[in-house]
């Protein structure tokens, strides 16, 4: 139990580090490195990679959610369009 929690904590910390690198990359794209250096962008490859990875994960999650909702809606429409089956009345 404790080893599982420790492993999960390490995984969560790694994920938070990835989020921090993505945020740092985005911040460097928005803010200049110094007042005299308004045109220079200085994010590292690791920071940009983290940013793209998080954006891709978010997009994939949202696409999966939309796809699942569309399938559910389609099934509901198909069920609603089916004529009701008549009840069998025993003589």
Topology:
Layout: H1 2-30, H2 45-81
Helix pairs in contact: 1-2
Kindly list the characteristics that best describe this protein:
91 residues; mainly alpha; 2 helices; 73% helix; 0% strand
Description:
The protein is mainly α and 91 residues long. The chain contains two helices and no strands.
Brief account:
Helix content is 73%, strand content 0%. By secondary structure, it is mostly helical.
Main sheet? none
Poorly predicted runs are: none
* Overall geometric form: elongated
- Give the class from helix and strand content and strand pairing: mainly alpha
- Regarding quaternary structure, how should these chains be classified? single chain
Distance between the termini: 63 Å
Helix-strand pattern, N to C?
Answer: HH
Rg, rounded, reads 25 Å
**Roughly how much helix do the residues carry, as a percent range?**
over 70%
Strand content: under 5%
* Number of DSSP E strands: 0
Q: Return the average pLDDT rounded to an integer.
A: 78
* Count of DSSP H/I helices: 2
């Amino acid at each position: 139990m404790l080893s599982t929690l420790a492993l999960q904590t390490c995984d969560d910390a790694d994920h938070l580090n990835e989020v921090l690198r993505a945020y740092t990359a985005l911040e460097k794209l928005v803010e200049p490195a110094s007042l005299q250096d308004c045109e220079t962008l200085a994010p590292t490859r690791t920071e940009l990679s983290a940013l793209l990875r998080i954006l891709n994960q978010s997009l994939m999650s949202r696409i999966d959610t939309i796809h699942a909702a569309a399938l559910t809606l389609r099934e509901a429409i198909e069920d609603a369009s089916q004529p009701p089956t008549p009840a069998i009345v025993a003589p």
